Amino acid sequence: MYKMDSHIHSEYSADSSSKIDDILRVAKRENIDIIAISDHNNTDALPEVMAKTKNTDILAIPSIEVSSSLGHILGFGCEESIPKGLTPQDTIDRIHDLGGLAIVPHPFCFYRHGLLCKIDYEELKIDAIETKNARFIVGYCNSKAKRLAKKEKIPTLGASDAHYWEFVGDCYSLIDCEKDIDSVLKAIKKGKVEANGKGTNNILLSKYLFERMVLKKFD
To answer: Percent of the chain beyond pLDDT 90?
Structure first.
């Protein structure tokens, strides 16, 4: 079993300032074997992260978090960018055309563009959902996602959704696979994965957001 954080943001996302080096340092500290930099609407970090993980113990999976017209969708395994603003199913079709998996992050979190707040799961051809996203306040959205996954037998993932490098690995997945990209994708598709971890400390998260959103204006 390997430990995987499939949803991390870097400085290539407008709402993050995390350097790839810092992300990799914390991933190593937290014994994360597999990571995915899933930046908003771009794969610009991919060349850097692939180069810096080559010949290391960390496997990097190409990924992107796409803003569809109704909410966010991870294109896990996608090496190319996908236009934002497409319908959810058109976004999913693009992901599948690129050989990736369509994963719904924070599916029921309405204030973070949770896709399943606006469209029914049965209308979509998704491959997995996050049932442990570390950025929660009371945990209701994760619990609702877990209930849906159990009822519909949807593969479940845990992920930090870290916009700040110190939060990498707060939530993660344990995955039964070989340590290569194709095997990771197949294992998720077959449900050989389980969500684990804890929520990001809300005091630390609030401190980070205050420093980024308020203090930064006075720099």
So the answer is: 86
Residue 76 near residue 98 (C-beta atoms within 8 A): no
Q: Which two three-digit tokens encode residue 23?
A: 């992300």
C-alpha torsion 185→28→165→13, nearest 10: -40
As separate numbers, helices (DSSP H) first and strands (DSSP E) second, the chain gives 6, 10
Going from the C-alpha of 5 to that of each of 36, 68, 89, 118, 194, the distances in angstroms are 7, 22, 25, 26, 12
The pLDDT tens digits for 148-206 are 999 999 999 999 999 999 999 999 999 999 999 999 999 999 999 999 999 887 777 77
Give me 189's structure tokens: 């598709």
Give 55-71 pLDDT, tens digit per residue: 999 999 999 999 999 99
HEC per residue, 28-94: HHCCCCEEEECCECCCCCHHHHHHHHCCCCCEECCCCEEECCCCEEEEECCCCCCCCCCCHHHHHHH
